[in-house]
Amino acid sequence: MERLKSHRDFVAVLKRRRRVSDRDIVVHFVVHDNPQADTRMRGAQRRIGLAVSKAVGNAVVRNTVKRRFRVLAREYEDALPRYCDVVMRAKPSAASADFQALDHQVESLFSKISAKQQFQAVNSSHVNENSAAHVVDNSGNFAEKPTAIVSNDIRNEMFNERVAQRSDASSELVSDSESYSAGNEIHAEYDASKDLIS
């Protein structure tokens, strides 16, 4: 696993505002969709940067935390998506955390990053597969216009995936009634747009 070396690379990861966190660690990440176009990747698949501030402790403590992070990142790097940049940021509590606790947290956080990326890929592919509605163009012929309409089966599948992810993170779950009403709103908007077209 290569290191993020330039300040610009660090900022690029942090600007995306995609992160997962645990008790002692926050992991910021970005997954590159087209790594060949990004000259900064230079053939590297996964790159890591470490952010350990003075709030964590003195130089000796900070270096200890960095060494632990490097060892753990190397151990669990295969859990990350390919062509991924991560910045591991230590919370002040990381100084007093034992190695086993950090080990468990890094394994869990890297797995969450992979799960988020897979969910995003599935979500976008479902929308693309079901995103064509017939409309009448200027010449009076039928044409296909991309929309964001998603079928009930796919919406329910996506909802179940979100519930599973949120229960892992001990977040509040979205109720079935909210999902049902959101689905009704989407279909109502779709019916209204059909009336406007015809």
From TrEMBL:
GO biological process: tRNA 5'-leader removal
Region span, Disordered: 165-198
Database matches in Gene3D superfamilies: 3.30.230.10
Any single Gene Ontology cellular-component annotation: ribonuclease P complex
Record's compositionally biased regions (Low complexity): 167-182
Subunit structure: Consists of a catalytic RNA component (M1 or rnpB) and a protein subunit.
Protein name (record): Ribonuclease P protein component
Source species: Bifidobacterium tsurumiense
Gene: rnpA
